[in-house]
Design the sequence.
């Protein structure tokens, strides 16, 4: 099994929990992108790393023609149900199965850092964006703005030691540097609060265990240790009524693709 | 002793790659460090004040598998961390 297939299998293991609980934590950033780039009728959107299709569905409802790619077949199945007029394919990010200049808008929500080769994935994203079209990259804010940082660090510590991290997901500047090296001129950062909120510990664990890295950690370190570690890492954010709230930011940039 | 930071810890330290701390043990050093740089506390330490296991500690370039807060440090010692961080 190749790296993309393996990544897809980890992300798909608890796909419904991802769709129902965790993916919505990025919804405020999705709504901000929709507002900034609208109007959407006439746009053709490719969402790379589309997960369960939340952003594609929102864009479709606003009139865009939407396509989505994800490494997880289970998530793609959910996306097809969520946005029935869209087209969704299982694919890695480094080999996008579309022609040059096919889309007016290409988005990546917290996905470029999951590519085995983020530079190649970005080149592919640019290739399929029409000149004058928009490329959007979304990532988590720095640790000082993200209560989730402790969760991401603790999960990182439970991964196999040789797990590659070609692009640090906690460093927005690393993402911006990637875009700049690819010849893009990114906008200033847009910062959007994206809290992780859960009704109780059980719901929090369902959401936080549904990510690809969490499943990879379970595969390596065992479910009990992963659950205990996650519960400890989020315990400071438990409120008096038993609910949880982790305050986080998402950062995104928009760049106009201007190939000569 | 000196803490030297890279990656997520470097950013948590306000991009200070080297932070000298006068301390005789690892516990004292971590206490003083997180006093000087409070934003590092939750990143470095768990809810009981112990170093998070996700940070692999290197003393003068040598991995210390299970670092203890009583670990004795000298003025010339250098501590670095290797920290993996997951995407999500």
Sequence:
């Amino acid at each position: 099994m190749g790296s993309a297939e393996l990544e897809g299998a980890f992300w798909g293991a608890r796909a419904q929990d991802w769709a129902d609980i965790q993916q919505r934590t990025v919804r405020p950033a999705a709504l901000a992108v929709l507002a900034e780039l609208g109007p959407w009728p006439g746009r053709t959107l490719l969402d790379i790393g589309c997960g369960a299709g939340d952003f594609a569905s929102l864009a479709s409802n606003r009139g865009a023609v939407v396509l989505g790619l994800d490494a997880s077949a289970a998530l793609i199945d959910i996306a097809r149900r969520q946005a029935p007029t869209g087209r969704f394919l299982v694919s890695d990010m480094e080999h996008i199965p579309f022609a040059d200049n096919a889309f007016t808008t290409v988005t990546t929500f917290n996905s470029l850092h999951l590519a085995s080769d983020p530079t190649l994935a970005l080149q592919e994203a640019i290739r399929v964006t029409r000149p004058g079209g928009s490329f959007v990259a979304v990532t988590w804010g720095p640790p000082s703005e993200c209560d989730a940082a402790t969760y991401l660090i603790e999960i990182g510590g439970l991964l196999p030691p040789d797990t590659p991290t070609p692009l640090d997901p906690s460093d927005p500047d690393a993402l911006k540097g990637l875009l700049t090296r690819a010849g893009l001129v990114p906008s200033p950062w847009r910062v959007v609060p994206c809290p992780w909120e859960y009704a109780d510990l059980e719901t929090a664990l369902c959401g936080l265990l549904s990510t690809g890295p969490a499943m990879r950690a379970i595969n390596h370190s065992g479910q009990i240790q992963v659950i205990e570690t996650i519960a400890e890492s989020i315990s400071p954010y438990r409120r008096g009524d038993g609910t949880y709230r982790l305050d986080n930011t998402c950062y995104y940039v928009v760049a106009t693709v201007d190939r000569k | 002793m000196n803490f030297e930071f890279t990656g997520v810890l470097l950013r948590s330290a306000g991009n200070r790659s080297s932070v000298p701390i006068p301390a005789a043990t690892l516990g004292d050093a971590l206490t003083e460090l997180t006093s000087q740089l409070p934003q590092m506390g939750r990143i470095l330490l768990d809810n009981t004040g112990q170093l998070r296991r996700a940070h692999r500690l290197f003393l003068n370039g040598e991995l210390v598998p299970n670092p203890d807060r009583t670990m004795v440090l000298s003025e010339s010692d250098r501590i670095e961390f290797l920290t993996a961080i997951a995407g999500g």
